Amino acid sequence: MFKRSPLVMVPGPTPVARSIQDQLGRETISFNDPRFVKDSQALVNDLRDMWRCDGIAFVVAGSGTMAMEMGISNISSKSDRVLVCSNGHFGDRYIDICSRKGFEMETLKAKWGRSVTVEEIDRKLSEKKFDILVATHVETSTAVELPLRELCNMMREKYPDTLVVIDGVASAGGVEFAMDWGIDIMLTCSQKCFGISPGLGIVWASQRAIEKRQSMPPLTESYVDFEKWIPVMKDTMKYWGTPAVNMVWSLMEAVRIIKEEGLGERYARHRLHAKGMRSALEDLGFKMGAEEGFTCPTLTVVLYPDGFCADDAKFRDTVYDEGAHVAGCLGEFAGKGFRVGHMGNVDAHILVSTVAAIERACMRCGWKIEPGRALGVLQKHLVSGA
Ligand code: PMP
């Protein structure tokens, strides 16, 4: 039977729009061809301005982990004290990255399914001075959202000298943030809310972060050193590491799509889609991985109810066969549920097909449901807009 390739509903990579993919098929030109120099300059300026950054937006080939490393390496030295907050698997990854840096580090870890709270961070920072705070905006292992705005307000009011580093891999481009909230480093990568193939890291650095880097000696790392990239981002005619020409073009197209949709509309769409997806999956009997009040707009993590198909891999393979690729859970949730991404350039068609595929997989795996009921729940959200 003819089958389309399954929808990419893992929490990154996300579905890539045709016009973005087309940029990858363009004839590659040199990074110092004046046409590319002009395009990439306009892109980094756009990224800087759209997210109200008074410093520089860096676009560098690499994955999100590279961006995490670039973010912390450029503003930390051995004499710093750093507080790293973790809401799950990727927060733990930032702890691991930071633990190799040789500075004094302390951690705050949330229970799986919850976020470290602004009050907990405040309490910790009030005990002693920290130079840097690191946190994850949306934790992709649990679908938990950090209250970023509230955190930034508290930091500005009470700890204005502490630099704020945010892993925005699963949020930037889909969830509200602006650098002028008081963020010093925000980072993401191409395959999440920008809806591009994997391969690019984006790091926004405030003027204050740039100044800190400039006050430091050369880094032990060279590829990710801001000092190497600052001249390039200010004048894309300059060279440090060869830019991923076609990926940069696809990011340009992704930014064009974001501008066309409007940032506010895009953020509202992500919240609406998340609500619809959560309600539909709850209707099927799944339990949310994120506790009430902590759920995020870009992905849903669900846990299997008692009596559900005991074979996690079999269930997800069945969803795949039915046309949607969802991801397995990580860490404490591994084997107990699945993760559905709904970030980036996702529309009603994609969401409806995904819930329909999950419904069919439930039936095929012996879970008694009323076909179409969860789909109806999603449809109501999509049409009512609430
Ligand atoms: N942080 C978060 C919140 C993530 O979701 C991911 C990837 N899923 C990463 C960091 C790491 O990104 P990458 O896999 O592109 O290195």
End-to-end separation in angstroms reads: 38 Å
Radius of gyration: 21 Å
Taking the sheet with the most strands, its summary is: 7 strands, mixed
Protein structure class: alpha/beta
H/I helix tally: 13
Instruction: Sum up the overall morphology in one term.
Output: globular
Proportion of residues in β-strands: 15-25%
What ligands can be seen in this structure? 4'-deoxy-4'-aminopyridoxal-5'-phosphate
Low-confidence stretches: none
Q: Give the beta-strand count.
A: 15
Helix content: 40-55%
Give, in order, the helices and strands: EHHEHEHEHEEEHEEEHHHHEEHEEEHH
Give a verbal description of the structure:
The chain is of the alpha/beta class. It contains 13 helices and 15 strands. The chain has a 7-stranded mixed sheet with strand order 2-10-9-8-5-3-4, with helices on both faces. β6 (138-139) and β7 form a beta hairpin. The protein is globular and about 65 Å long. The model has no long low-confidence stretch (mean pLDDT 98). The structure holds 4'-deoxy-4'-aminopyridoxal-5'-phosphate. The site of 4'-deoxy-4'-aminopyridoxal-5'-phosphate (PMP) has 12 residues, from α3.
Name the features.
386 residues, alpha/beta, 7-stranded mixed β-sheet, 4-stranded antiparallel β-sheet, 13 helices, 15 strands, 41% helix
